[in-house]
Amino acid sequence: xxxxxxxxxxxxxxxxxxxxxxxxxxxxxxxxxxxxxxxxxxxxxxxxxxxxxxxxxxxxxxxxxxxxxxxxxxxxxxxxxxxxxxxxxxxxxxxxxxxxxxxxxxxxxxxxxxxxxxxxxxxxxxxxxxxxxxxxxxxxxxxxxxxxxxxxxxxxxxxxxxxxxxxxxxxxxxxxxxxxxxxxxxxxxxxxxxxxxxxxxxxxxxxxxxxxxxxxxxxxxx
Length: 222
Prior knowledge:
The structure is a single chain. The protein contains 9 helices and 8 strands. The chain has helices at 19-30, 37-50, 58-66, 91-101, 104-115, 129-133, 147-160, 167-183, 205-221, and strands at residues 8-12, 34-36, 70-72, 77-79, 82-83, 122-126, 139-144, 196-199. Helix 1 (19-30) crosses helix 9 (205-221) and helix 2 (37-50) packs across helix 4. It is α/β, with parallel strands linked by helices. Helices cover 50% and strands 14% of the residues.
């Protein structure tokens, strides 16, 4: 039986749960596209901040989003033809992105951009992929872990990049981001209806990936 290739998988969850890496690996193993929504929102925040456009300035936001262009390849992210690959993954961007991502104008403008990528199936990670963007997804996952575990992962990730992170600051940011994302008015962070809640606190990245791939392969054979 030929595999169904246009399957849509959403992986939502809090900051530092490992969504981006797992989503990328799942997409690669299944041979379907990966939609890095975190990179999209971070790129918007980067461009807005760079041009002095605050998340409260609706007219300026609309104008910025109208001209916004993003290109994501396997090793590079270009926002308005600027290479933002490294810039959007900094501690500064962790703190800046939330107000932009929670803005109704930003989310509405990026909705069609995200949905248009699903023609050939995809694996998408974010905070509202299963609840808002792809509510009819074939497989919805809510990937989580304890705040301490997620902070430790961020800490080690930044150390590996040659940065000098502070664990306590990262933990505070993780907890602050959780509170903000879960209580925001627009698309609050929560498991989608019918989502599989997967706690990765005591699991390796490979173990999480294999669990998701196994379930997805069964769906692709149906």
